[in-house]
Specification:
This protein has one domain: Aldolase class I (TIM Barrel). A hairpin with a 4-residue loop joins strand 8 and strand 9. The relative contact order is 0.15. Helix 1 packs parallel to helix 3 and helix 9 runs parallel beside helix 11. The longest helix has 11 residues. Strands 1-4-5-6-7-10-11-12 form an 8-stranded parallel β-barrel, surrounded by 8 helices. It is 38% helix and 30% strand. By secondary structure, the protein is α/β, with parallel strands linked by helices. The radius of gyration is 16 Å and the shape is globular.
């Protein structure tokens, strides 16, 4: 199982939100590049980056900064937030980003996902964010009538190889992940599932490992020193 240290960006700074609420924002660093280097130096194998401005406005708000991070690192990065068209996918993948995460558009425009997967294969990841099992979109500010599992099955049919499944209720709360939801998802599909939301300890990672997820995204726990990256990686291995 792989650990993905997370970097969330608003206005060029490294931040964390609580349950995706933009009004509950804590800034942890002015330069996300420095944070990315730190995670690499501490053994991180793959960095998970979200452009939170982009998630909200559908634009590539922090593109230059993200490309700069990709240039500095020797490890791969994946990027989500505001990926709504092929132009955006191509720009990221042509400029050092290894995987692009399609979120909101997976629900509203599955043909876009189909086109991206047919061109880039496993470099396309779909982010499924759920509130009480239902898909949330547009920076988590709207909840749809589609279940996360139904969307995951649809994406698997299209040819998506990896989904990132976020339980919004646990995100940024440091109260443990929704292990049951992750288990239900890994049992529902045969593609890779990366768990996101609520990881606060090595014990949480051990519990997630038992569900069969391919990896876990760890954010706030690293920034508040509730969990050190080395311990997270050792537990995952």
């Amino acid at each position: 199982m792989r650990i993905y240290p997370a970097i969330d960006i608003i206005d060029g700074a490294c931040v964390r939100l609580v349950q995706g609420d933009y009004s509950q924002k804590t800034k942890f660093a002015d330069d996300p590049c420095e944070i990315a280097m730190r995670w690499q130096n501490e053994g991180g194998e793959f960095i998970h980056i979200v452009d939170l401005d982009g998630a909200r406005n559908g634009e590539m708000s922090n593109f230059d900064l993200i490309v700069r991070i990709a240039d500095k690192l020797n490890i791969p990065i994946e990027v989500g937030g505001g990926v709504r068209n092929m132009d955006c996918v191509e720009k990221y993948l042509d400029n050092g980003v290894n995987r692009v995460i399609i979120g909101t558009s997976a629900l509203s425009n599955p043909d876009f996902v189909k086109e991206a997967v047919s061109k880039y294969g496993e470099r396309i990841v779909v982010g499924i964010d759920a509130k009480d099992g239902m898909v949330a979109v547009n920076g988590w500010e709207e909840v749809s009538t589609t279940s996360a599992i139904d969307l995951a099955k649809q994406m698997e049919k299209i040819g998506v190889k990896t989904i990132i499944y976020t339980d919004i209720a646990t995100d940024g709360m440091l109260k443990g992940p929704n292990v049951q939801a992750m288990k239900e998802m890994t049992e529902a599909v045969s593609i890779d599932v990366v768990a996101s939301g609520g990881v606060s300890s090595a014990e949480d990672i051990a519990r997630l490992k038992d569900t069969g997820v391919e990896g876990a995204i760890v954010g706030k726990a690293l920034y508040t020193d509730a969990l050190c990256l080395k311990d997270a990686i050792n537990t995952a291995e």
